[in-house]
What we know:
Layout: E1 2-6, H1 16-29, E2 35-40, E3 58-65, E4 86-99, E5 115-121, H2 129-147, E6 152-161, E7 171-177, H3 185-188, H4 195-209, E8 219-227
Antiparallel strand pairs: 1-3, 1-4, 2-3, 2-8, 4-6, 5-7, 5-8, 6-7
Amino acid sequence: MFVLIAEPGSRVLSVGHELVTETVALLRARGALRIQANVVDPDLGPPFGVAPDPDAPHLAASVSMWVDVAEGFDARGLFPDPGSAAAWSGYLVTESEPLRNTTAQPGVDGRVPGFAQMVLLSRPDGLAWGEWRRRWQQAHTSVALATQSSFRYVQNVIFRAVTPGAPPYAGVVEECFLQAAASDLHVFFDAVGDDQRLARHMAAMSESCDRFMDGAAPVSWTAEYLFPDEG
């Protein structure tokens, strides 16, 4: 999994079109099987209209690929140049998909309807790796699925970096929602027409996230593109 991380307060050159056309073809030629690309969608705006922290890095794009052999698979030279304010970093991850997308199928261009919320996770200081993973993948998963209207939920636990100098993130979470959730908290938190249910769901999510997140995780809303294995 390769992520494009932008420096605090920076604006990244647009890489979306090149990423889902030329880059996908180049990755296929290098042996990548199934490919997924996510690109920040400016039409969505920042999550819930809240501008990102100008002092924090943020995810501008990502590419997930399934390969037969990950060792030595450094694809950075195949990705679009984002300019000097951002850099591609690669990680070997183990993917869990507690909720598969069975309802929102991609279009002919690979674009999945709606949007994907992506969060770069860091393990809080003082929390052992095993306990961090237990809180996220065991305790939190059911809370996330019960309190949100997501139609896909993916957990990527980072095993190690595959590029020099990659930031020491511990995981990447992906949650897909229909477009209406971008502008309506009641839709996002599966509480349409019920303010009390909304309050309960938001409180449960906040309390659960606080158990394994440090409160400063970069959140991005992205357009998701899927390119299945052609074999």
